UniProtKB/TrEMBL annotation, chain A:
This is Carbohydrate ABC transporter permease. Belongs to the binding-protein-dependent transport system permease family. It is found in: Cell membrane. GO terms for biological process: transmembrane transport. It comes from Pelagibius litoralis. InterPro entries: BP-dep_ABC_trans_perm, MetI-like, MetI-like_sf. CDD domains: TM_PBP2.
UniProtKB/TrEMBL annotation, chain B:
One of its GO terms (molecular function) is ABC-type transporter activity. InterPro entries: AAA+_ATPase (IPR003593), ABC_transporter-like_ATP-bd (IPR003439), ABC_transporter-like_CS (IPR017871), ABC_transpr_MalK-like (IPR015855), ABC_transpr_MalK/UgpC-like (IPR047641), Mo/tungstate-bd_C_term_dom (IPR008995), NA-bd_OB-fold (IPR012340), P-loop_NTPase (IPR027417). It comes from the Bacteria. This is ABC transporter ATP-binding protein. The lineage of its organism: Bacteria, Pseudomonadati, Pseudomonadota, Alphaproteobacteria, Rhodospirillales. It holds the Pfam family TOBE_2.
Length: 316, 340
């Protein structure tokens, strides 16, 4: 058929395409607006951030970011006058408010905790999930369906319903406020999702590839690594993103089970209190920075998400 | 290359017996074709030899070694799957190199390159080596699948309908090519097909298989000319053998117990006769160019035979039929030999 034939039965009509584009753009705007607002608030001064009507055009300031990373103390003008000139821009910014920087805040530590716990539990969930899903997909396992249901049943109640038992359990075994404890907890929550998602993806990979690899002189484990894993990459990437999003954003357990060493960023950010209430620019700055790793991770793995299902090399 | 020997091999899937007490020996350097319809147990037989299925009973030996329970990895066979099973995440080159790169073999990389290039040349796909396996036509995929088997020298090549998805021209070429390669390499080859032409042209011996049982094994001519029963007789010959009830057409002295007479198309002599003495009537003539298929009605039966392209017969002509070398079968379809 020539390219000029516009009336293919499968091609959408022009107005349908315009309408769907418009809807997608509208949806994108609605979802992205709160993010844009948070991003903008991070660069406002505290006064601008709570002004009414809200300011869309404002003079950007880094005060939120400085407040996020520092603790400050208010001083008398007399004392301020005795200080030598500020040795950096952050110090100067703080002194304009009649304050001095007392030290770094805990945000860096909390952020690092989030990275360790988020990525650690994601790796563990996907690693264990892939092995379990492969076993469920390929081997004859007694009570397979019951086991799969049992795994899924851990998702049938809100996780917070078991918060108290877990809190008591963790306290008695010494896992409270530890990285390992949080990694294990998030892995336990994520693994049901990982097994179910990955089993679906691995089921789609025809058995013939592994049989071919076995005949080509590879052991089952080698065939799994060389043949199954590359083809399950799409599914593994998608699963990893879902697991990371959950453990990265998890708030309730983190609030309950961590307080110091292992506290993640989500329960920490809202506690950034300035003078006379919440320091909204600092909270927004924290939220903005908190978004970056997960956005970067998703963009890195996007190729796999979009690649779709491999097809064609096995004739059905 | 080595001898492969199956003795009393049985494989059941739940209630169905896919392979039933199979005895088959593929001699070193021999090309054996298993011929049978879909579901006859051909593929299962191959998978049993490869070790992809475990036999319920019986014994499988490769090169004198009992491999009945051995894993595919250690059996040293190669397999061409009907569904190609090319690794979709690898290029054609890497697909062909995959068996050589196995940790069990450790072929040095320069040698791998040499052998892959030689195979690609032989299969006429050297320009496709850098393509992803998914970016090939069906015929190219099938050639890569064959190449992946040929790239190394295993104890036996197992091929499951490897030519089934090629177009007619390529299939004819590949038939000759595959036979030539097998001869040159002195390869032992067990080949499964439902295509009688592939069986006739390539096999040293054909094994006709039905419902998991090996019905008859023999050289192609032997199977064609001397079938043990009706089933084997109908597997070969195009158009298929005519099965005529006894006494419909005079056919020499039939042995006692004959129920059916088998007449291959080339074994029916046709003469044009006057309507009142005719045994049959020409119903239809198919002109194929090099030959004609003549469809004749004899009473209420149909008989198909071949005639020369320049035949003077036409539709509704009366004909008389004479059978040469008829095959006699009893009521159960078993062959009855003349004089017994």
């Amino acid at each position: 058929m020539s390219a000029s034939t516009a009336h293919s039965v499968v091609d959408a009509k022009p107005w349908t395409r315009h309408l769907s584009s418009a809807l997608v753009i509208l949806y994108a705007l609605i979802t992205i607006l709160p993010l844009v607002w948070i991003f903008m608030t991070g660069f406002k001064t505290p006064q601008d951030s709570i002004s009414y009507p809200p300011k869309v055009v404002f003079e950007p300031s880094l005060e939120g970011y400085v407040n996020l990373f520092t603790t400050r103390s208010r001083q008398t003008p007399e004392y301020m006058a005795t200080l030598p000139p500020p040795d950096n821009w952050a110090e100067a910014l703080v002194r304009d408010r009649n304050m001095v920087i007392a030290g770094p805040s805990k945000f860096g530590e909390r952020f690092l905790n989030s990275v360790i716990i988020g990525f650690g539990s994601t790796f563990l969930s996907v690693f264990l999930g892939t092995l379990a899903a492969y076993a469920f997909s390929r081997f004859k396992i007694p009570l397979k369906d019951d086991l799969m249901f049992f795994i899924l049943s851990t998702r049938m109640m809100p996780p917070i319903a078991v918060a108290i038992p877990i809190f008591l359990m963790y306290r008695s075994v010494g896992l409270s406020d530890t990285h390992l404890g949080m990694i294990l907890l998030y892995t336990a929550v994520n693994i049901s999702l990982a097994v179910w998602l990955l089993k679906g993806f691995i089921d789609e990979i025809p058995l013939e590839y592994e049989e071919a690899a076995l005949i080509d002189g590879y052991s089952r484990l080698q065939a799994f690594i060389k043949v199954v894993l590359p083809q399950a990459a799409t599914g593994i990437a998608a699963t990893a993103i879902f697991c990371l999003i959950f453990s990265w954003n998890e708030y309730a357990f983190a609030l309950l089970l961590t307080s110091g060493t292992a506290q993640t960023a989500p329960p920490f950010i809202p506690t950034i209190i300035g003078e006379g209430g919440l320091d909204w620019p600092a909270v927004a700055a924290g939220a903005t920075l908190f978004l970056i790793p997960i956005v970067a991770f998703t963009i890195l793995l996007r190729k796999h998400l979009l690649r779709g299902i491999t097809f064609g090399a096995v004739r059905k | 290359m080595a001898e492969v020997c199956l003795s009393g091999v049985t494989k059941r899937f739940d209630e169905t017996t896919a392979v039933d007490r199979m005895d088959l020996t593929v001699a070193d350097g021999e090309f054996v074709v298993l011929l049978g319809p879909t579901g006859a147990g051909k593929t299962t037989t191959l998978r049993l030899v490869a070790g992809l299925e475990k036999a319920d009973q019986g014994r499988i030996e490769i090169a004198g070694r009992d491999v009945t329970t051995a894993s595919p990895t250690v059996r040293d066979v190669s397999f061409v799957f009907q569904q190609y099973s090319l690794y979709p995440h690898l290029t054609v080159f890497d697909n062909l190199a995959f068996p050589l790169r196995s940790p069990a073999r450790r072929v040095p990389e320069p040698e791998i390159r040499e052998r892959v290039n030689a195979i690609a040349e032989m299969l006429r796909i050297p320009d496709k080596l850098q393509n992803k396996a998914t970016q090939l036509s069906g015929g190219e995929m099938q050639r890569v699948a064959i190449g992946r088997a040929l790239v190394r020298a295993p104890q036996i090549y197992l091929m499951d309908e490897p030519l089934s998805s090629l177009d007619a021209k390529l299939r004819a070429d590949m038939r000759i090519e595959l036979k030539r390669i097998q001869k040159d390499l002195g390869a032992t080859l067990l080949y499964v097909t439902h295509d009688q032409i592939e069986a006739m042209t390539m096999a040293n011996r054909i094994g006709v298989i039905d419902q998991g049982k090996l019905i008859q094994v023999g050289a192609p001519r032997e199977i064609y000319e001397d079938p043990h029963n009706v089933y084997v007789a109908t597997r070969l010959g195009q158009p298929a053998i005519n099965l005529i009830p006894r006494d419909l057409i005079p056919a020499g002295v039939a042995p006692a117990g004959t129920a059916t007479i088998g007449a291959r198309t080339e074994h029916i002599r046709i003469r044009k006769v006057a309507e009142n003495t005719a045994q049959g009537k020409v119903q239809w003539i198919e002109h194929l160019g090099d030959q004609n298929h003549l469809h004749i009605t004899v009473g209420d039966r149909k008989v198909t035979t071949l005639v020369e392209p320049d035949t003077d017969l036409s539709v509704d002509d009366g004909v008389s039929l004479e059978l040469i070398k008829p095959l006699y079968f009893d009521g159960a379809g078993e062959r009855l030999r003349a004089g017994t």
